[in-house]
# Entry
Amino acid sequence: MATEFHNLQELRHSASLETKVFIQRDYTEGTVCRFQTKFPSELDNRIERTLLEETVKTLNSYYVEAEKIGGQSYLEGCLACATAYIIFLCMETRYEKVLRKISGYIQEQNEKIYAPRGLLLTDPIERGMRVVSFTVLSVQLEISIFEDQGSGTSSPSSSSMSSTGSAR
Amino acid sequence: MPGFSSGGVGGGVGGPASTPPRPFRPSRYTSSYGNNTVCHHFVVPSFFILSRCPWLSEYFSSVIPIYNAVIFLFTLANFCMATFMDPGVFPRAEEDEDKEDDFRAPLHKTVEIKGIQVRMKWCSTCRFYRPPRCSHCSVCDNCVEDFDHHCPWVNNCIGRRNYRYFFLFLLSLTTHIMDVFGFGLVYVLHHRQQLDTPHAAVTMAVMCVAGLFFIPVAGLTGFHIVLVARGRTTNEQVTGKFRGGVNPFTNGCLRNITHVLCSSQAPRYMGRWRRPLSVEVQPPFLRPPLTEAQLEAKVLDNGIQNDQHSTRSKSSLDQMESQSADAEPPPPPKPELHYPSLPRADTEESSLLTEAPPTPSMYKYRPAFNSPGRNHPAFTTPNKVHVNLHLQRWPWRPWWACWGGVKGHVRLLPDWALLHLLPIPSGGSHSSSMRSAHTAHNPLATLHSEGTTDTSYKSLANQTPRNGSLSYDSLLTPSESPEFESVVSPSTPLQGYTSPFLSAQIAQQREGQLLQGSATFSSPHRAYLHAVSPPPPSSCGPLETHLLQHNQDSSSRAPRNPFTSHSSPGAQIFCCLCSFVVLFEIELTPFLLCPPLPNGYPIRSTSRPVLANHTTSKPGGGVKKVTGVGGTTYEISV
# Structure
């Protein structure tokens, strides 16, 4: 039987642990889409407050712009009625346009601000615009654990577990 | 123009070109109410118009047929949009969002909207607190945003996205009926002397039909005009939510009307293309500068962390890490998972120590490392880690589930269909079976649920799946929760549904078997083990688990034990205790033998490159042997 041994200096790093932090919707002004600017305590040592608040405020302003009832949305509605809503097959609605802008903004924020801090912001539309979620990444070691078969008749099985999960 | 038939217009309307086409829902076409609507409201008047138009255009003006055609098309278009459009269905919440699935999470969350307290209820099916004005439709089995009602005529929910079309459909239909009646009357009045002709007779018949249908349609239209003006939904009006009170969702009559008619089309949440996030994440991570208070807390922490190290149980990993201290300078900092935050002067800023979860258990959501990147030389090596995160898997349903439209999960399908499962991307899915197993800890609480109406918790609501969901809960739920959904009739078993009443019977039957002794214990024991066994590390884990559970359900459906239906309260309590103990043991056993990774990562076996100094089974010098969890032995070469 060949028992494999590994030098601990060869332990690898892998960013495999994800935890999520959520920012909920702010319903104080009704059902308009707004997110709370309250800073979640879990991110206290990961990112500056001002950066996060600015991101959320910008997102809120985008949503306000999307839901604004003005000339453009009215004209869009009239055009849709006039064409028996076939225009929706060809044209992107105002809301969808703003959502594209939002996802571009989130991508940019992730690249510039959040990824260097080990966070990832996700688009709220993917969760039905109920929450803004931050994925908190942390780097951790991967350690292999080997079973000693004792009698030495069969090859050892190995399983790799994270260092946090196995300490029970 | 040809009469509209029920097999007519297909989908494809109701979404921008960039989103995938909406799944085809043949169920809409077979609705009897829909057929009624179609025949009476469209076919007959349309036929009438077609036959009378020549005379009307000659006698009055040629605009009349054009006008009638426009009204007819408008009605039809709005009908189609109201029927086929997604009303604003919320996707089910992913597992990582629900972290408070224990006794202490309340069933209701109160939020203040313009100074008025509004309650948000926990939806046990969709696993989130329903936003204000959202309601769970029992027919569609979805939470719908700004839920108005479920319309049987179009066989669809009316919600935020399609309320405008429904409203316009009502308006245009009323107009259309009035037109038909009016022009028919004009014709009849001009042909009083020829009333015995077939044309006149048909016209009068059509007028009668139109007149008959005008009453309910106009009534409904008027009702909705009032609702729109007041800024209420049908659900709110009918349930009397704001009776005598103030409606926090109204912005004035004019603004309410403009909001309904002139706002931009709301986006759909289901069926969106998600672009995978491909971001390079490179440690070390930036950290914000610490304030003075944080620095103070850090100083305190250092001493306290050292104390924790010494008092921690001697697991093998601890020893490994202390040995690794020889090989590598400082070991990675440990998360304070098992020890609650210590009683010191905690300020709001000093949150460097993450709080332990309130009830540490294997299924619980685990917080991240405290600060892995801080001053750790091992992490300052320039290892670029590519994180290709397909984090959000939008509510994926296999292709055959789309045939029911957005009706929820796989539960509509019969057993044989479940055998043709397609693999789904896993990830968070491993934890889903664990989580549902975790909630099954509480049968004891559920049996006493009759008295806990006021202090209801999410865990109780989670016990009772809607319409027979194929979760582990349904196997173990012994009784109904008092917070069962309002709108409804007890569900009848349709199309492979498992009714919650049936699951209660199964659980009672199992308890009866427990009482009878261990001889009969083996089969439900096996059933529980079968359902609880950790899913294989392939990607179709949770669906397979569902399949197993569904099979268990159907296999155990036949033997019904009337014994337990008349048991005394004392025996019931004893049953609960037994089942609680048994379940606790059963659930823990597989995980004790095979501890899972956090966040649902399957246990992988990796093949490592073999080093030069591999030896035979008896380790020689230079290798330390340490014992670890579950009897495993670690051999470390130093």
Notes: Residues 198-230 of chain B form the longest helix (33 residues). DSSP finds 18 helices and eleven strands in chain B. The two ends of chain B are 88 Å apart (CA to CA).
